[in-house]
Write a structure and sequence with these properties.
With 337 residues, the protein is an alpha/beta fold. The chain contains nine helices and 17 strands. Helix content is 26%, strand content 22%. The protein is globular.
Length: 337
């Protein structure tokens, strides 16, 4: 364990200030995330360098379609989460049982070793992903600073619930982020995720204002996050509060891999295509349909002339653009190389 940042204490109760839950943690207890523990009035992170697992992924898997397209990213994650989403597809990591035993059974790794691995594997970026990176910010932040010094890009895949203090700390080193905007319904966030909507919207707007490359993902769950009126409001938020150049990824829900929603149906293609049409009608330039293999709506088309610029085959891509610009009309495709 390592002493955490982002907390206050009265020597008995600890107030964690890492995310918007602001957990009040009694002696010997952990916060909602399950990995930040009060020991004698000091808050400790039990996942600093522990339970870290890694893989090398296409950047498109995050998903990021307009950030270094076609590159590979060194992905790291750990255990725990500050949400408890019923639909979670990575619940074995985010909501593990006997987490202390899991962590004790793993070898410790340092941020320095992560950077050595990234350089050795010739990856131009690190993605903090798999589980929510916010709950392991101390480890992520040390790694991000070293990555920055070595000209390696930093990417987060997040639920967007970090505190202002946490966001302040990572912004100087954060190059790109995909935020999972699950719904525009606060009741959905409260019942399905055990969180609130407003902090997520606030952080998304700030990330855009700070010019971090931002892409949004929404999982459409039948009967829970599939309402047309709600999706219209979500698209309106992206258009009016962010920009029409913000990529939006629409994903299908699959009950077989969900944590607690086994009885719901798989999202119908009609729901996905309906959301796609809402977004395109509202003026979003880059709307992507996920989890429908071979669908042409995963390709990138020029927002000016409509010509195909990037063709996608799953996570494999064929670039037909010219350094982020349309090969036909020279329009910017809002790509960060």
């Amino acid at each position: 364990m390592k002493e955490a940042q982002f907390y206050t204490t009265d020597k008995k109760t600890v107030k964690c200030r890492l995310c918007h839950h602001e957990c009040q943690i009694e002696e010997g207890k952990t916060g909602i995330c399950g990995v930040r523990k009060n020991k004698q009035g000091i808050l400790y992170s039990s996942v600093f360098g522990r339970g870290i697992y890694s893989d090398i992924d296409p950047i498109e898997k995050k998903p990021l379609f307009h950030f270094m397209p076609g590159s590979m990213t060194y992905s790291i994650g750990s255990y725990g989460c500050n949400f408890a989403c019923s639909n979670c597809l990575n619940h074995s990591a985010s909501q593990p049982k006997q987490i202390d035993k899991l962590l004790k059974a793993t070898d410790e790794i340092s941020p320095e070793r992560i950077i050595e691995n990234v350089i050795g594997d010739d990856c131009p970026s690190i993605s903090y992903t798999y589980n929510e990176p916010t709950i392991n910010t101390e480890f992520a932040l040390e790694t991000m600073k070293m990555a920055y010094a070595n000209k390696i890009k930093n990417v987060w895949v997040s639920n967007g619930y970090m505190s202002d203090e946490c966001l302040d700390s990572i912004l100087p080193y954060l190059d790109a982020i995909n935020v999972d905007l699950k719904s525009m319904d606060d009741d959905f966030y409260r019942s399905n995720c055990k969180a609130r909507l407003a902090p997520v919207l606030k952080n998304i707007k700030r990330l855009k204002d700070e010019q971090v490359h931002l892409e949004i993902t929404t999982l459409i769950i039948p009967s829970l996050s599939s309402d047309i009126e709600m999706l219209t409001r979500l698209v309106d938020f992206i258009v009016t509060e962010l920009d029409t150049d913000t990529p939006w990824h629409i994903s299908r829900f699959s009950p077989s891999v969900s944590w607690r929603l086994k009885d719901l149906p798989t999202t119908g293609e009609d729901m996905i295509y309906g959301a796609y049409e809402i977004a395109k009608t509202a003026g979003l330039k880059y709307v992507y349909v996920g989890n429908i293999p071979g669908d042409q709506k995963e390709n990138t088309y020029c927002p000016k002339c409509g010509e195909l610029s990037i063709r996608r085959f799953g996570y494999h891509i064929e670039r037909l653009d010219k350094k982020g610009r349309c090969a036909y009309c020279d329009k910017s495709l809002d790509i960060v190389e």
